Amino acid sequence: MAVVITNIGSLVTNDQSLGLGLLGEINNAAVVIDDGKVAWLGSASDAPAADQSIDAAGQAVIPGFVDSHAHLLFAGDRGKEFEARMNGQKYSAGGIASTVAATRSATDQELEANMRRLVSEMTRSGITTFESKSGYGLTTKDETRALAIGSKFTPETTFLGAHVVPREYAHRPDAYVSLIIDDMIDAVLPHTKWIDVFCDEGAFDVDQSRAILQAGKAKGLRPRIHAHQLGRNGGVQLAVDLDCASADHCTHLDDSDIDALAGSQTVATLVPGAEFSTRAQYPDARRLFDAGVSVAIATDCNPGSSFTTSMPFCISVAIRDMHFSPEQALWASTMGGAKALRRDDIGHLAIGAVADLTILNAPSYLHLGYRPGVDIVSRVIKAGNITYERVA
Ligand code: NIG
Ligand code: FE
Predict the structure, then answer these.
(1) CA of 133 to the centre of ligand 2 (A)
(2) pLDDT tens across 62-91, in order?
(3) At the topology level of CATH, where does 66-340 sit?
(4) Ligand 1 atom having least distance to the Cα of 230
């Protein structure tokens, strides 16, 4: 059954051959969806007939957001840590241990219910594809069950056994690295697409990270990495050397890091929620765009450093404090996220693309930054199905 969304005031396609500017914007547009895919798009006056019609009432339609970095499999709460940081304490990787304890003692049902709640928040914020990592279990059994649960919600699952060294291995970190390489990777394989390492102070160094990512690659997992959140340690160069799909955080970058990224297929994924919630310095996205680096914006939803599921919030902060232009921020949260997941079927709207769209209650995508903190998502469509409809 074909459905036409018509009377779209502004349609963002992210396809410069279809419309104006970086975002390939078409005014007074329509989109036809058939069989979960985009079957036609263009000027509303030329739209073909369809079985059903949705009136966008002159508002804006954008590709669904693609959130390429999130940690949704956990239990417990770290609000007190947030309070301490806002009172002047520094963020450190150490807080992860308290979530590990809570996650290990949660039941499968509790973990699944927590994830379902966060996924539903994401959908209401306009996200149609998201990645989710393990990393709060840190035993073979707990990492495997987290990924088994995560794979019920998304195909973009990531094994992050190398989040931190758990307490029971504090005095023998190399034994933990061996456990990951020799045992955990095989166990998680059936539920996992990606492998990630927190390569930073208090977590894993570059040599350990390289060994873990290479072991995962050898088993068919695809690499991505947390790099340069807390300092510059060579994690970005490692990402490029291993052809990681993305280097995430990139809070601390010098010119050589930017040159390395610019000459690679590795996306720089910026996570405004993390700098916001840890009161860290913001990276300057202009330097990355000027050098020709592909940039994504992700929520990094996690209970420690960035407990937000709102892509519009991240866009507002990215524009205000990371110096994205509004169009760069929209591109980075849709097409940039798709590139960070090495997907070419999502993040843009063209004939044949997956029909993942977000209808705004605003005449332009500009309102995502212009109206910070205001809920302007009115309908979300995933693979042609309405997954969220706002009650007026
Ligand atoms: O992406 N940096 C490492 N991992 C998470 C934070 C984890 C936590 O504090 O629980 C992040 O910010
Ligand atoms: Fe993260």
Answers:
(1) 8
(2) 999 999 999 999 999 999 999 999 999 999
(3) TIM Barrel (3.20.20)
(4) 2
